[in-house]
Amino acid sequence: MTPRHFLTGAELSAAELDALLDRALELKHAPLSSQALFGRSVALIFEKPSTRTRVSFEVGIQELAGHAVVLRADELQLSRGETPRDTALVLSRHVAAVGMRTGPDATLQELAQYSTVPIVNMLSARHHPCQALADLLTLREAYGRLGGLRLAYVGDGNNIARSLALLGALAGMHVAVASPTGYALEPDLSLPVGASGEVTLHTDPREAVAGACAVYTDVWVSMGDESTAQERRSALADYRVDDALLDRAAPGAFAMHDLPAHPGEEITPELLYGSRQRIWDQAENRRHAQKALLELLCAPATGR
Question: CA-CA distances (angstroms) from residue 253 to 27, 32, 149, 209, 283?
């Protein structure tokens, strides 16, 4: 049987995304209720540093009665020139699924091409779909629905912005992305099949947040961007999320951030640690959303 992979989020249908979020809420309320990975292992490859991704996947797999095989880049032959193809062929003989946190999307695509088990994108240069699942779960908890909601993203049009746009549109949301010139998402972004929402691009953050149920931001200098740090900080200086910007959103709107944060840069400390945010809920919801995802991807072999 051909495995199901999760590389961008566009692999899901709108109905599957809705059901996955429903299941994630069930698992959040009963964390030890599923043994979907009983007696099975999941390989987690980390070529990039990680806090939330590693902890949420490792603990979540354990709660599903499985075993996480955590592999750092310097522990694999990938670091010595072995191909992703050969890595996929070997790991497929041992584990139920493989998660990878890497740079080039091409590495994940090659793994998926030759793997006989599901490949999960735990972060790549262009996509962070597992984070977006947790973000949508957080919004679903807050509002009871996603369809018709407006989510504003303010800052660099990076992998987080792209994944929010793709999965938010699939959930029927309007995702408004505000970025400075030179840092915007591609205007010809291809939305998933069945997406009923929309994505709009803005340069004025005040325009993007108008009517938004939440205002999302991310670091100005991501991993790999250190060489242009000062240039990026200068370009994004007017895109800080603070109370004044949040006041322009819908009543009751809250701040969101995927972390790690740089308080005083992309978000003020008052918002990050105050009462007008759901940032720490997002961090927890990584685990619950990813457990529902692993159930879905491994279902042909394991069920619940």
Answer: 26, 32, 11, 10, 18
Query: For the chain, how many residues are written?
Result: 304
| Pair 239, 205: CB distance under 8 Å | yes
pTM recorded for the entire structure:
0.96
Q: How far apart are CA 87 and CA 278, in angstroms?
A: 38
Residue 259 has, within 13 A of its CA and on its CB side, a CA count of: 18
* Extended beta strands in the chain, E state: 41-46, 67-72, 97-101, 119-123, 150-154, 174-178, 198-202, 214-217, 254-257
Phi/psi of residue 298, nearest 5 degrees: -95, 0
Show Cβ contacts of residue 10 under 8 Å, excluding neighbours closer than 6 positions: 166, 170, 192, 193
Residue by residue, pLDDT tens for the chain (304 residues) are 799 999 999 999 999 999 999 999 999 999 999 999 999 999 999 998 999 999 999 999 999 999 999 999 888 888 778 999 999 999 999 999 999 999 999 999 999 999 999 999 999 999 999 999 999 999 999 999 999 999 999 999 999 999 999 999 999 999 999 999 999 999 999 999 999 999 999 999 999 999 999 999 999 988 777 888 999 999 999 999 999 999 999 999 999 999 999 999 999 999 999 999 999 999 999 999 999 999 999 985 433 3
Residue whose pair of structure tokens reads 């009517």 in the numeric block: 211
3-state SS assignment for residue 247: coil
